[in-house]
Structures
1.
Amino acid sequence: MDLIVVVDNHWAIGNKGRQHVSIPEDLKHFQQITMGGVIVLGRKTLATFPNGMPLKGRENIILTRDKNFSVRGGIVVHSKEELFEKLAEFEGRDIFCVGGGKVYEMLLPYCKYAHVTKVEYTYEADTYFPNLDEHPDWKLIGDSEEHTYFSVEFYYRLYENTNVKSAFN
């Protein structure tokens, strides 16, 4: 399993349930990386998707504590154990954790690679991603040239977890 995230200078990922920036080139990058794979996300993150619906061309697994939640076109699970049982059915496929904050926190140790879009700006935020530059298990293995969207500068960075745990035990 890998993860994909957009962070600012302080590793912020959102504020009041919304991502802090939307960059068309990065949305295409996300689509290219995840298309045909499996994405794992929380119910609140799903609500930020177009029309609050699962993304086409991917298996969408939504993690929620709400036992009454259901969504057409998505698979709903209610615990880490149930998630891992469901993910075992997709072993060998590309699997991506795509947020939000609590889902990233829970699955970070199980992710091998982190595809990080690093935005050179500091936004008002209430949700943060762990700073992988300071995390002992993660190392930077790839960094792109600078990209720009109007006045926003950003980079694509790839980190590798040197102590990844298996979700398929």
2.
Amino acid sequence: MSNAKILPILINHNPILRKKSTQIRRDEIKTKEFQRLCSDMAKTMEEKDGAGLAAPQIGKNIRLVVVRTENSAVCMINPKIIKKSWAKECGEEGCLSVPDVFGKVKRHKKIICKYLDKKGKEIKIEAEGLMARVIQHEIDHLDGVLFIDKARDIKKLT
């Protein structure tokens, strides 16, 4: 990640943020360009202090998200939630594409998510709490949905 670069983040009202993203083909994953994109997105998320970052936020309508974990950034390719808990909880969210705005969003407490890693290997993870929230938030981006579409008690920092 040493030569990764920080990418510009699109801000709300950019039409790319409202488009549904396309699936990534397995043969694309192995390319240098794609691997670099994963590194650049991870670096961008870390520099901007985000919990996650979706490709549409950097102007690419492809199904790729990067999520921060305790010790690294995980690249999730074509992520799909295959199971959701019945229980939901409300929590505060913000978004790098909607700066200085926060709101309460109801999300599933636990999810099981299937995705491909950077090597093209299928991974299944069970996430709960903040991690589950971040994954749901980022997958929404891939479907052209922003958290402000679902949030209540929206506050703008001045």
3.
Amino acid sequence: MRVIINIDGGSRGNPGPAGAGVVIKSADDGTILHEAGVFIGRATNNVAEYNGLLEGLKRAADLGAAEVEVLSDSELMVMQMIGRYRVKNAGLKPLFEEANALVTEFKKFEIRHVRREQNKQADAMANRAMDLKRTIEN
């Protein structure tokens, strides 16, 4: 199975109350397979983005996906994951390492940067989790 995962993370205050949004769709027909907003607590924007990636990869594995394409509006995270930027922040290194370990479980992994406008559903889920101060799943 091939899936497309839209992820987003946000923080109000940076650091501040933070959340991540994840929307997993079938690459075949666009059917939503999983949608969640994860409340993280106090964190930075970049930590929230990585938490969205981790949640998306874990859920895709749970769904039995063999191939994943991740779409994110975080240029920093995408460039770090493809090896163009180094991970300098000590707080991001363990998240980056965990994401790279999860990626090896898939037959095929791609990640690419998209404009904010192309990531509205994941953004809405992240904001909903921050508003409610709890994790939600649809």
